[in-house]
Amino acid sequence: AQSVSQHNHHVILSEAASLELGCNYSYGGTVNLFWYVQYPGQHLQLLLKYFSGDPLVKGIKGFEAEFIKSKFSFNLRKPSVQWSDTAEYFCAVISNNAGNMLTFGGGTRLMVKP
Amino acid sequence: DTGVSQDPRHKITKRGQNVTFRCDPISEHNRLYWYRQTLGQGPEFLTYFQNEAQLEKSRLLSDRFSAERPKGSFSTLEIQRTEQGDSAMYLCASSLGGRGTEAFFGQGTRLTVV
Question: How far is it, in rounded angstroms, from Cα A2 to Cα A25?
């Protein structure tokens, strides 16, 4: 079945540690990829997106993600996390093989210890 | 303020009652999505509209769920004969349409069925 998988459900890091959150999808066809963030008590907001071109995309707040087509992956990275990055992170995909609907992974809850 | 408004923000209802939620998208957006999110899970796609046309409704959780978007502007999501399992956050999002455009989310309506 077509799906979006986020392997890490909970991640705890200390400030200044590096972050990498995994995202894999199983859709074929042309995909557009997104990472959304949900801070405590707030709505979902976009961190970054990939449509085409350079597979390394940069987003807000120092986040970046790399699209690796051969691995069906779109992992999120940040070299040095801050306490304010504590939030839940969601990977999402739109595929022309799946009705062009925006479909989310299960999310990764990140806690950054000060 | 995200630009997508949802009303009400919270709804407590007794089992068996009908509830209706409203979503006002960003005015120039022609695509509108509904999702359900339960604790610890990613947003689960329910349905979406392109203008007033409902393009995908097979993911609606049961025939107790229905959605409308008259005139391609605001949308309503109705749940008939609510059950305790319907308790969740219901999210609305809108976008300009097309696979590559960002979806903007509202704050959601939290439904509690008692």
Answer: 7
